[in-house]
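Model: Ready when you are.
Researcher: Fold this.
Model:
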Amino acid sequence: MALTLPPKVTDRAYARLAEINEMTGENKALRVAIEGGGCSGFQYDITLDEPADDDVVLKGDGGIVVIDPVSLPFLENATIDFTEELIGARFVIDNPNATASCGCGVSFSM
């Protein structure tokens, strides 16, 4: 079985996660998961959560990002970032595996 490489998490995403944890007084990980659905077939589910035993754990300055083993292949070579735009501030995923995505950037197809 080939090794699946985890996504890259930007310093900006780790910094925002640290800010969120500081504001809430908690120390949660950012969970990035893939679910079926959305207008393009799959959608990203980004939540604050506790790491599970089988998660891939990515640690950076200020935080932890976790990805379950089922979602990991969909996120290979992707970049998890944080952006602030006119439509709002949010975590975003630049996924080279996606063949198409919707305008909101939340759902994609492969």
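Researcher: Now this one.
Model:
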Amino acid sequence: MGHVDVNRAGIVGAVILAGWHMAWSVLVAAGMGQRVMDFVYRLHSLKSDAVVQSFDPAMAGLLLLLTAGLGYLLGAGTAAMWNCLNPVCERGKTGSALRV
């Protein structure tokens, strides 16, 4: 695989991470957050006293902004590392002693 566009990878990371948290915010706003959280805990054999608070649009917006920023950094960082390491991978394919 060749060069990966760092900005596009960052945008993809932002959309995925913020989209996941948007789904959680919708569940909380719909009043289903506690049931979903309890179910997920049970699936993982966990018990918690955590309680889902009432929906706060400002906090939900902050959650989406922060996770979008983090997703962008993770996606762009991963693409940058890939682009940096990719020449090493290509050299390995041409017969040099270094194999990755």
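Researcher: Key takeaway?
Model: The CA atoms of residues 29 and 55 lie 5 Å apart.
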